[in-house]
Amino acid sequence: MASSSADSTADDTPSLVGRLLFAGGLVALAVRNLTNLDGRIAYADAKGVPQAETLVPAASGLLLGGGLGIGSWKAPRLAATSVAAFFVGVTPTIHDFWAVDEDARGEELTSFLQNLALLGAAIAFFDRARRHGDD
Q1: Sign (positive/negative) of CA torsion 39, 101, 90, 84?
Q2: Which of 1, 46, 49, 89 is least enclosed, having the fewest CB within 10 Å?
Q3: pLDDT tens digits, 59-116
Q4: How many structural domains are present in the chain?
Q5: Measured between alpha carbons, how far is 122 from 84 in angstroms, rounded to an integer?
Q6: Selection from 71, 84, 72 nearest residue 25 by Cα
Q7: 4 in a domain, yes or no?
């Protein structure tokens, strides 16, 4: 059965809302990182991230660009790849719950799991863009 344009618009609404919520959250995280760059660099440096003064702004740029790209659905595969790269790089190095003392373990585990969920969403957006041939 063929779907009408009204049907396709209704089907796009949850995707749009989800995409904008996801993208808005990513952009907000990136802006928080960039407005507290010295603190984020110091934290990454304390976690043993090499060249933190270069990698933290670069990673935050990946998150910002990826969030904007997913939100606007411009170059969504590249945008989702940028977001995924951020979470793949940041999650095990910054939220290494297995390597911290018991007092910090719960907070780091929560952040680690949240990042895994966001990585999963980025992969899902990448797959959606790939399946629909969106650049």
Answers
A1: negative
A2: 1
A3: 999 999 999 999 999 999 999 999 999 999 999 999 999 999 999 999 999 999 999 9
A4: 1
A5: 6
A6: 71
A7: no
**Beta carbons within 8 Å of 40's beta carbon, 6+ residues apart:** 33, 56, 60
Counting every residue written for the chain, the total comes to 135
User: In 7-133, at which residue ranges do the beta strands (DSSP E only) sit?
Assistant: none
| Distance separating alpha carbons of residues 4 and 14, to the nearest angstrom | 17
- Residue type, position 45, single letter: D
Alpha carbons 116 and 124: distance in angstroms, whole number: 12
User: How much is the pTM?
Assistant: 0.88
Q: Report if residue 6 sits inside a domain.
A: no
Q: What single-letter amino acid sits at 68?
A: L
Specify whether the CB–CB gap between 61 and 14 falls below 8 A. Answer: no
pLDDT band at residue 15 using 50, 70 and 90 as cut-offs:
confident
Which value, to the nearest 10 degrees, does the dihedral of the CA atoms of residues 62, 65, 71, 76 take?
Answer: -80
Yes or no: say if 83 and 127 are a contact pair by the CB < 8 Å rule: no
How many whole angstroms from its chain centre is CA 118?
Answer: 6
Domain span including residue 19: 12-131
Does some domain include residue 47? yes
Is residue 78, in this structure, part of any structural domain at all?
Answer: yes
